[in-house]
Amino acid sequence: MTKRLLSSIHDVSPRFEGEVDQLSERIVAATGSATMALLAIPDHWGSAPIRAGTPFATRLRRWSETGGEIFLHGWFHRDTATHRGLARVKARHMTAGEGEFLGLSRADAQDRLRRGKALLEDIIGQPVRGFVAPAWLYSPGARVALRDLGFDLAEDHRHVWSPTDGDRRLAGGAVITWASRSASRRLSSLAAASVLRRYLRSAPVVRVGVHPGDLRSQALLRSIDRTLRLLAADRRPAAYASLLPDALPVA
Q1: pTM to 2 decimals?
Q2: Sign of the C-alpha dihedral, residues 76, 77, 78, 84?
Q3: How confident is the model at residue 194 (pLDDT cuts 50, 70, 90)?
Q4: Contacts (Cβ under 8 Å, ≥6 apart) of 93
Q5: Distance between CA atoms of residues 104 and 82, nearest Å
Q6: Exposure of 251 by Cβ count < 10 A (0-12 exposed, 13-18 middle, 19+ buried)?
Q7: Confidence (pLDDT) at 93
Q8: What is the C-alpha to C-alpha distance for residues 159 and 66, in angstroms, rounded to an integer?
């Protein structure tokens, strides 16, 4: 079986169009391929809406036509729920108010998923098959809503699964990603990336996710470039959809 590298850019929105361009150029330079997932936010924090007919919508469609696999990535990306128990711990320590889908009911998740999917599909002219929750955090109701809305692909920190196929696991292993929010988080993510890019070298599928904020740190960028080059040396850049049973074999 051909080993695969799945690259993704998070937080694709009009707010970060220039940053997405820079990150996509880095991925292409390091891997030699424009195949990557672009995780689009319909209305980032309620102040950066994606609207049909705008220059950004045209840009999003062009990305999808040149190797970009468009995923839905929440609706606002902002978490406004009140959490208790384990969810409260996750909301406090795993994200800075961005785990939008961590506290949603099934009905609320359905509403945002339905509207986001329809918006992106209208813009790119093809089905949106994948969803990644902001901060990779899901409520139980959100997971059920993904199945209700017919999403074939979903991802958290440790797995890729198919909601429409009984939540069947498609790939495992921690996603390699970086944190830019503070000096301590930058250092810990640099250390984690260094370990994971070696630990996962033999894995059949490795995932790498980057964010616009990564561009603020040269140390993070050097780590991203090194990680992508190392992994691309012996594996093929691929789309998430290549994991599905109906996908063509990876050459």
Answers
A1: 0.92
A2: positive
A3: very high
A4: none
A5: 10
A6: exposed
A7: 43
A8: 26
